[in-house]
Amino acid sequence: MAHFAKLDDNNVVTQVVVVSNNVATDEAAGIFFLKTLYKEPNAIWKQTSYNTIEGVHTLGGTPLRKNYAGIGYTYDEERDAFIPSQPFNSWTLNEDTCQWTAPVAYPDDGKRYNWNEDNQSWDLIE
Question: What is the C-alpha to C-alpha distance for residues 82 and 60, in angstroms, rounded to an integer?
Fold first, then answer.
């Protein structure tokens, strides 16, 4: 199955749909099908890969657009990537993965934490 993300005028993902590989033999065919199906000839669609996370295809295939698109993600034309919303002002975009990175690494002790923006630290969830 092929997945496609519909973009608004600001390149924000508003919808993600699945199209059969028999129809979406390539990206252009999938986009043509969706524009016809939804009767929106000017809609902007981009193919996205369900198996692409942080620029890696989880099944060993070719990664597509850094991350699987989600509603609210932004499509960045220069990077040809889907980028999630910035979770906190202090987090920076990792250019390789197009994911947001905290200024302090997540603890690697098997416990669960929430980010504390005020203290710029990870708070243990008890």
Answer: 19
